[in-house]
Amino acid sequence: MKKVGLLGGTFDPPHIGHLVIAEEVYHELGLDEVWFIPSNEPPHKNKATTTVKHRLSMVEAAIASNDHFLLNPIEIERPGKSYTFDTIQLLIQKHPDISFYFIIGADMVEYLPKWNRIDELVNLITFVGVKRPEYELKTDYPIQVIDIPGLDISSTMIRERLAERKPVTYFIPPSVRQVIKENQLYEPRERS
To answer: Exposed (0-12), middle (13-18) or buried (19+): which is 112, by Cβ within 10 Å?
Structure first.
């Protein structure tokens, strides 16, 4: 049976941390692919600051050089809040020959008890928890833990740096930076 990792998020913008997590889990679990699934409206966060079109373009740019990373727009194609349970049900219906591994950061591991239909969800997929420096991986739910190199990078930090005209070189792939420049995303704030 094919093994596919799923990495969801707003990817606003995608950054090196996302890519490192996906590659480390791919390698450690011997996955066939990792699918990046941009969310339409995440239930636990505010809406993305950029359009769906731009976020899809940035993810495509970020993963273009890796043949085992793929973009899956399943949550973008579905209106409303993006609940993981609904996404997984659709993926299993479309791909009954695939075992799915849902990759989450330690911050989301702590949030699992609040997930929609979590008790059913843990029976459909394998959760893979990746460590982040400021979080512990403690939960009553079954998760497979993967140690990854510590990278304290977030999309929020990148948006703030861009707004303050600070460099983001090495935090995001050059291809993502190009999409940001071409579309004038995350415009700098006026200095006072």
So the answer is: middle
E strand or H helix that includes residue 105: strand 98-105
Pairwise CA distance, residues 10 & 3, whole Å: 23
pLDDT of 45-82, one tens digit each? 566 788 899 999 999 999 999 999 999 999 998 877 77
Q: How many helices and strands in the chain, by DSSP H and E?
A: 7, 6
- Token pair for residue 90? 């659709």
- Domain spans, the chain: 2-151
Judged against a pLDDT cut of 60, whether residue 192 lies above it is answered with: no
Q: Would you say 112 and 118 are in contact if contact means Cβ atoms under 8 Å apart?
A: yes
- Tens digits of residue pLDDT in 78-87: 877 778 899 9
CATH of domain 2-151: 3.40.50.620
Residue 73, amino acid: P
Report pTM: 0.91
